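SAMPLE LOG
Freezer: B-3
Tube label: C17
Construct: single chain, 660 aa
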Amino acid sequence: MNRSRLYKNLPALTGLFGLLLAGCSNVPLPSEIVRGNANVRSMGEPRSFDPSFSYNEGDSPIIALMFPAFYHYEYLKQKTYQLSLDIGAAEPTMVKLTPAAKGDAAERWTYRIRKDLKFQDDPCFKATGGKGRGVTAADMVYSFKRMADPSVNCPVASYFADKIVGWGDYSKGFETLKAKNYDQPFKGVYVDPDDPYALTIELTQPYPQLKYLMAMAFTSPQSREAVEFYKEDYALHHPVGFGAFKLKEYIAHDHVWLTRNENAHPQSYPTEADPDLQPLLADAGKPVPFVDDIYLKVVTESVTAYNLFQQGYLDSLTVSFANANIVPAANGMTQEMKDRGIQLNKNNRASIDYLAFNMNDPVFGGYTPEKRKLRQAISLAVDSDQYINLSLQGMGMPAQWIVPPGLEGYDPDFKNPYRQFDPKLEKAKKLLAEAGYPDGVDKKTGQRLVLKYDYYATSPALAQTMRLFQKQIQRLGIQVELVINQYATFNSRVEKKQVQFIQYGWNADYPDPENFTFMLYGPNESPGPNAALYNNPEYNKLFERMRDMEDGPERNAIMERMRQISVEDCPWIYLTFPVTRSLVQPWVSNLRANPLAADSMKYIKVNADQRVERQSDWNKAVYWPLLLGVVAVVGVVIPASATIRSRTNRRVRREGNATR
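STRUCTURE (predicted):
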C-alpha cells in the first residue's frame, strides 16, 4: 500500500474514530443534573399537576411540593399516621351552632394560615411585575370554589357536597353563570371579615374526616390569576404554586424538572420518628429542602427503569407488583447490590387487595345461611400466602379484614375464620356441602356450579394471578370461567353491576377507618366504592354511627361489631395489605417512603460527588470493539480508495491519449 495514500486518509479515519467515541456517551440526563445537587427519580407519564383535579398516585408527590396544604403527614411517623401543621398557623377552632332548618350550619370551623406564604414569581402576577404575591385565605376560598365547579371534575367534591353549607346551590350556579360564578359568594366557605388569613368553613353536620381533607392538595390555596392566565396550560406546563419547589420544565414523554422555589416559606426536617426510624433523625431540625432540583425521568418500561438504576442514573427505585418480576430484590438484595452499598427499604401501604362477590347475584349473592356458607367455602379455598409468594414476589401481608395496619381499628391479633387456608380444604368442602353444592355440584339439578371471574389482564403477571385464583377455587369442584377485559371495560362492567366475581383494590384517601369501611356501606354501591353491592342494615347503621366519631374505645367497639357482621356475610375475600420495597443508592440519605406523606421528596439528601464517581465506575466505556470496527473500516476503505484512484487514473490516461 502506498504510504502517501494512507497518510492522506488519516484525517478522515481520525474523524471517524472521534465520532464513534463521541457516540459512546449513554448519560440520559442533563450534565447540571448529573453533577448538581439534584434528586433523580423515574415516573410514568404525568396526567395533570392541577391540584383541583389530579388524583394520580404518580403526580401527587409533585403537586404536594408545589401546593402544600394546611396539614401534612409526619414523614417519620408510620406506625400510626399523624398530622401536623404545614401552612397552618395554629390548630383550627370550632364553634357549635344550632341549625334552624335542614342545611343550615351545625359547626363553624376557622383555619388560620401562615402570613409568610408567597406564590412563586410568575408573569401571571401583573400587579407585582411578575414577582409573585402573598397567599391569603381568599386563595383557599378560590380552591373550594374550583372543587365545586362541575367542569373541573374534582374527585373529592362528593366528600364535601352534603356537608358544606350551600355547596349544592353554589355548584349549580355554574350552569348559568359559568366562569362568572367565581365572583359570587360561597355561603359555607368564606374569609373571616376580621382576618384575611383566616378561612371559615360551615358544616351541616359533624365531619371528623375534614382534617384529613385539609391535608390534601385539593384544599391548598390556588392563584386565580394563574388559572385564568394559563387556562389549559395550567394543568401540566404552568402550575403556579408556593411550595418548596416549582415546575421548571415538563417535556412530554421525557422528564419533569422541579427547581427550588425562591419564595418558599421556611420548612425544616422532622425532629421526631418512630423507634425503628430513629437513625433517620441525623438532620433533625435542619432547613429543607436539601436539594436544589428534582428531576423525574419519564420511564414507562420496568426494564428500562431498572437498567437506569443499575447504571446509577436513578437515585432510587420502587419495587412493586408491577416490576417484581424484573427487579431481583423483591425478597432481598443480590450480592452485587450489597457490594455496591445499595439499601433496601420495606414500606407498608395504606391499601388492600380483595376479591368480591356480587351480593345481588342469584347464585353467589344473598344473605341466607346457605349463601353465606357458599361464599365462606370459596374464601377458605383461596390461599393468600401463595398469591403473595408467587404473584407479588413476597410483597404483601395476608389481610384478615378491611382496615389496614397503621389505622385505628386494625387488630393484629384478629384471625378471620374464613381466611385460614387448609391445604386439605376439609372445612371448605364441609361448608360447600352444607350450602347445597357437594363437590361443587348443585344437588338439586346435578349441574356443576360455575363462577364467572371478571378482571382486567393488562400484563402477563395479572393474567397469571387470575389463573392462580381460578386453580385454587376449582379445587372445590367449582368451575371458574375467566372473563378478561380491558381496564376501561372492566370498570364499566363493575359500575353497571354486570359482574359476578371480581378482583379489586383500594388505596387510602386518608388514614381513617371510615375510608375503608365505607366500601361495605349499602348506599355506596356501584358506581360508588361498594363494588360488592353489600347491603346489611345493621352494618349500615353502625357505619353511620362510627363515621362521625373521633377515635376511641367506643368507636373501636362499633367497628368490632361491623367486623363480625361482614366477616360472617363474607361479601369479600380479603387478600393482602400490599407492601412495596425501595432500592436506594449509597449516595442518598433520609429516604423512607411514607404512603401518605406526599411531600417527602423535600427531605431527601444527595451526595452529588459520590454519585458522579459511582456512575463513572459503573459505566466505564469499552473501546476495543470500536477499535476493531475502525480496523475493519480501514481494511475496506483504503483498498477501495486505491482501486477507485487507479481506475480514475487509467480513465484520465485513456482520455489523454485520445486527444493526441
